[in-house]
């Protein structure tokens, strides 16, 4: 049954998390507790049941896929002929028989409501111990039908293996189901009829599982009058953690299953994920005679009541707590902090009312939106908001089927004549006749949430707001002082094209049509289970095998109440509970799925300001001193060394200006510094602060780091070149790794490496085990089998283009490095006159030239200013391991969601980090170029705004500010001069081997990978 229902389970995986569905008209619209979105229940009709063993929520087998938990749907489903038999069974107790008689004598006409009412009273008089009575009642139930409403989970009981199990399954849940329905009827009646609050309440009582944290939080926010009633129910049905069942793993028959069981229970939370993985890892079905599964079922008994004197542990959302420092008002800051450090606090409801639409809190609101729903490229497959489809290079926060149905539900509500908001109601005319297309665009914009790459705002432009309310608002019902302008001042306060969404764009379909195979989005929508992150597959597949274009990797939440995930082994910086703003600790995401090994960092006094003449700059602010980009950090100013001219520069200054740091000449006489960076001359090295003892003449890649035999006798030396950002005097920047001569390697791990003999190995461990020397990461490429020197944009000469890409550096020009480009846009001359640049790959591209490079290219370019003191702190906490450029690029690369683009970068000769988001195809299309530009603008905005989605990751927390330039596209014209050479392989696909997948589920065929890996 599980195998046959797998396609339906995948097709409805999102619906399975939304709670019960029903055909009743009053339930056609509802919200999923926790996110406030609206959904349509009609999608649930006709979906088959999918069963799963419940391990720690109940003692029965229950359905993952359910319908409304009503016992009876019509008189025909409970035949009156069974009533005398029930009455006879109930003779053991007078009061029970007394209640049973009216059931028997109820007239057949209109009996459904009476039967339901009377039978709901039976648990009060007929105890659960009267098994024969309840078995008899249960035997009259019709089972589950696609057209009739039935008891939650009854259909699953027929899937039990033994007759006793089937009987017990039907019996016990029936009793608790009646009691639960009665409790829900009483509790939800306080919410009134046909209210959103009532829908939230019924969602909790509509399933046979315990209420989720999200459901409880939603009730707390929107229905505070029900929290006591729901709380009593929660205490009766406590949520158990999978970790409570860890002892069951000892019952497994083999060591592998025991180990896998412990890992699964620690890292996963949902029942079906745990069960599926246990079946997969232990390679056996959940049979009742298996000691492991017996323990899980027996362990499902509710735990003893907790000590009433022990206060509940406060749960944190560290991702949201990051945002609280961005509040401009003390009220919103305190409310944000209280809600982020105390899960379940009622403050979020007040926060939404007082801060959500406060123009002064735009930065705070945007930060919180980043945590909950980050902006992602692409939107497709919507059935109602169809004008939002086929937009692969636009950013959206919530392009999914749920939001699509939510927009439709909003329209149905607005058709009643009022737009209800937390703090106001806006009366409107009949929107089916007054600008219906515009209203659809409004509803879809509010639900799908398009966001600009720079501001990341999702606010409708004020002019559109005023226009539609002027034409379609019911002005006669406006409150005193209410006008379209005053309403829109609160809802849509700006017409800035960089900070608001013009509705005109979504009044017509996308001009791209359906031909969108040029740009794909494997991780949007997210195909991975909960507690897992989706990463673009840039490694490829094992030879002769197929694989998906994405990986699902386990992660950790930033706090017990957070939904924001980071991948395992990641280091994160989170605020310290109860400490002032600016106090953080660095933690590691452990294999257990929790943040562990936390160490506090020195607190930063965020109240200190930076004095610039007669102006004060606040902590974290960015500004310019002359033409230098600068940042204020804890009262101290640090700026770029980028050379520039000002209007006050003298003629002599202009004559001597070279465009290089400190006015150094543009002669190329390279020196290798101890930080692993090759500088074009000793003058430039001294200008960035290096002493003569800290560099040697010659480029770094010409030096053999293993020549001096730096490793112990029982270890091999492998070159491992890196450019370090932390202090080389405190944290030595070694250019080699020492590895054991006898290694135990994982042969299943695929992270291919090519050695100097052009032989490919599945991973670096196996290469080292075989005594080979690595040449570059990724599969061996035919075009890189022989040396063909190229000059990288960092001024380093590489043996092949594959070696350059493996170092995450793009190629500047063919041949040995012999020139240095300027780092300033103010200089019109450079030492690159002798360089012959290849043509641009994208026709009509207006390129950018990276600092220090000679040749322009088509890419999105970021120049990032970073804090060296912070880098030193992170190096100290990471066992004194230096922070490298590769560390930064590896994390930024995870934020590039389009496989047709990739992240490259280097340390510029003026001390800035240069990051390029560039197409990886040989001949990228304009659409792919635009996608790379959007990815670059998105990352720039996240850095500049200090969004926790980026800066919570160590070492990205040390990135202070960013400036972005993108390669704009002309509508027509021949290709411009200058571009890095194309890939050395014949593959013209993205860095996902085997070609660009047509859609996320499409497998990648066995690889012909590009060197972008």
Characterization of the model:
The chain contains 29 helices and 36 strands. By secondary structure, the chain is α+β, with helices and mostly antiparallel strands. Among the domains are: 242-298, no CATH class; 318-372, no CATH class; 381-506, no CATH class; 671-742 and 781-969, no CATH class. The strands form 14 sheets. A four-stranded antiparallel beta sheet has the order 33-34-32-35. The chain has a three-stranded antiparallel beta sheet with strand order 9-10-11, with no helix packed on it. The protein has a three-stranded antiparallel beta sheet with strand order 12-13-14. Helix 5 packs across helix 7, helix 15 packs antiparallel against helix 16 (347-354) and helix 18 (401-414) crosses helix 19 (436-448). The two termini are 41 Å apart.
Biggest β-sheet strands, sense, barrel: 4 strands, antiparallel
Mean pLDDT over the full residue set: 76
Strand order of the largest sheet: 33-34-32-35
What is the rounded Rg? 32 Å
Question: Could you write a compact summary of the structure shown?
Answer:
With 1013 residues, this protein is α+β, with helices and mostly antiparallel strands.
List the keywords.
single chain, 1013 residues, alpha+beta, 4-stranded antiparallel sheet, disordered N terminus, disordered C terminus
């Amino acid at each position: 049954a599980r195998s046959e229902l797998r396609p339906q389970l995948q097709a409805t995986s999102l619906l399975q998390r939304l709670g019960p569905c029903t055909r009743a008209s009053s339930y056609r619209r509802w919200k999923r507790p926790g996110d406030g979105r609206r959904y349509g229940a009609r999608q649930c009709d006709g979906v088959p049941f999918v069963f799963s063993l419940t391990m720690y929520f109940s003692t029965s087998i229950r359905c993952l896929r359910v319908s409304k938990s009503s016992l009876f749907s019509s008189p025909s489903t409970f035949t009156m002929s069974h009533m005398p038999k029930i009455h006879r069974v109930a003779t053991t107790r007078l009061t029970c028989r007394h209640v049973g008689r009216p059931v028997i004598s109820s007239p057949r006409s209109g009996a459904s409501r009476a039967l339901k009412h009377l039978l709901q009273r039976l648990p009060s008089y007929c105890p659960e111990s009267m098994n024969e009575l309840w078995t008899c009642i249960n035997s009259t139930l019709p089972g589950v039908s696609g057209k009739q409403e039935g008891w939650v989970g009854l259909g699953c009981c027929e899937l039990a293996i033994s007759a006793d199990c089937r009987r017990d399954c039907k019996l016990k849940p029936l009793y608790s189901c009646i009691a639960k329905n009665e409790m829900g009827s009483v509790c939800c009646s306080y919410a009134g009829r046909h209210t959103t609050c009532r829908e939230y309440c019924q969602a909790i009582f509509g399933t046979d599982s315990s209420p989720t944290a999200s459901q409880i939080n939603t009730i707390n926010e929107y229905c505070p009058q029900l929290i006591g009633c729901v709380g009593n129910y929660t205490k009766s049905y406590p949520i158990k953690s999978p970790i409570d069942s860890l002892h069951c793993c000892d019952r497994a028959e083999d060591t592998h299953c025991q180990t896998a069981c412990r890992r699964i229970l620690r890292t996963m939370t949902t029942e079906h994920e745990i069960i599926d993985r246990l079946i997969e890892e232990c390679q056996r079905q959940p049979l009742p005679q298996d000691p492991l599964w017996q323990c899980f079922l027996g362990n499902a008994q509710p735990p003893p009541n907790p000590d009433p004197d022990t206060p509940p542990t406060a749960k944190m959302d560290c991702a949201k707590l990051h945002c609280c420092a961005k509040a401009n008002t003390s009220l919103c800051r305190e409310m944000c902090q209280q809600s982020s450090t105390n899960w379940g606090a009622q403050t979020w409801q007040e926060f939404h009312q007082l801060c959500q639409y406060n123009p002064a809190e735009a930065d705070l609101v945007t930060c919180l939106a980043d945590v909950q729903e980050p902006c992602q490229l692409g939107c497709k497959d919507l059935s109602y908001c169809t004008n939002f489809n086929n937009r692969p290079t636009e950013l959206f926060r919530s392009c999914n089927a749920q939001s699509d149905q939510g927009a439709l539900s909003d329209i149905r509500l607005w058709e009643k004549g009022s737009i209800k908001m937390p703090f106001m109601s806006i009366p409107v005319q009949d929107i089916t006749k007054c600008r219906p297309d515009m209203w659809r665009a409004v509803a879809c914009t509010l639900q799908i949430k398009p966001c600009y790459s720079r501001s990341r705002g999702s606010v409708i432009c004020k002019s559109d707001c005023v226009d539609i309310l002027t034409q379609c608002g019911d002005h006669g019902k406006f409150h005193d002082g209410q006008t379209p302008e005053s309403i829109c001042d609160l809802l849509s306060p700006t017409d800035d094209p960089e900070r608001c969404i013009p509705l005109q764009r979504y009044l017509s379909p996308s001009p791209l049509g359906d031909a969108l195979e040029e740009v794909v989005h494997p991780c949007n929508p997210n195909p991975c289970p909960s507690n897992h992150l989706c990463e673009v597959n840039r490694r490829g597949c094992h030879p002769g095998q197929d694989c998906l274009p994405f990986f699902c990797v386990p992660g950790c939440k930033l706090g017990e109440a957070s939904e924001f995930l980071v991948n395992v082994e990641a280091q994160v910086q989170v605020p310290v509970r109860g400490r002032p703003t600016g106090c953080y600790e660095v933690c590691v995401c452990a294999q257990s799925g929790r943040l562990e090994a936390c160490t506090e960092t020195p607190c930063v006094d965020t109240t200190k300001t930076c004095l610039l003449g007669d102006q004060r700059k606040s902590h974290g602010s960015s500004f310019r001193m002359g033409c230098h980009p600068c940042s204020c950090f804890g009262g101290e100013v640090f700026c770029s060394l980028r050379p520039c001219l000002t209007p006050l520069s003298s003629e002599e200054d202009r004559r001597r200006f070279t465009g290089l740091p400190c006015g150094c000449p543009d002669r190329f006489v390279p020196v290798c510094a101890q930080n692993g960076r090759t500088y074009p001359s000793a003058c430039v090295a001294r200008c960035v602060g290096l002493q003569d003892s800290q560099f040697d003449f010659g480029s770094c890649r010409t030096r053999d780091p293993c020549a001096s035999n730096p490793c112990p006798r029982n270890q091999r030396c492998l070159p491992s070149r890196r450019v370090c950002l932390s202090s080389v005097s405190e944290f030595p920047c070694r250019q080699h790794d020492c590895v054991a001569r006898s290694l135990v390697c994982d042969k299943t791990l695929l992270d291919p490496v090519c050695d100097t003999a052009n032989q490919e190995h599945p991973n670096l461990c196996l290469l080292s085990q075989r005594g080979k020397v690595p040449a570059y990461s990724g599969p061996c490429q035919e075009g890189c089998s022989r040396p063909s020197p190229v000059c990288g944009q960092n001024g380093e000469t590489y043996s092949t283009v594959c070696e350059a890409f493996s170092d995450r550096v793009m190629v500047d020009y063919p041949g040995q490095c012999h020139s240095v480009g300027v780092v300033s846009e103010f200089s019109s001359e450079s030492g690159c006159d002798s360089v012959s640049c290849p043509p641009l790959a994208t026709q009509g591209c207006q390129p950018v030239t990276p600092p220090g490079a000679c040749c322009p290219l088509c890419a999105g370019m970021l120049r990032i200013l970073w804090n060296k003191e912070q880098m030193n702190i992170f190096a100290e906490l990471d066992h004194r391991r230096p922070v490298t450029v590769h560390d930064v690029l590896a994390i930024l690369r995870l934020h590039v969601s389009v496989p047709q683009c990739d992240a490259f970068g280097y340390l510029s000769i003026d001390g800035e980090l240069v990051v390029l988001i560039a197409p990886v195809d040989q001949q990228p299309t304009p659409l792919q170029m635009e996608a790379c530009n959007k990815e670059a603008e998105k990352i720039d905005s996240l850095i500049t705004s200090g969004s926790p989605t980026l800066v919570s990751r160590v070492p990205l927390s040390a990135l202070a500010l960013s400036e972005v330039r993108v390669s704009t596209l002309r509508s027509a014209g021949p290709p411009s001069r200058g571009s890095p050479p194309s890939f050395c392989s014949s593959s013209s696909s993205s860095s996902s081997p085997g070609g660009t997948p047509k859609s996320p589920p499409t497998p990648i065929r066995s690889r012909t990978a590009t060197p972008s890996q």
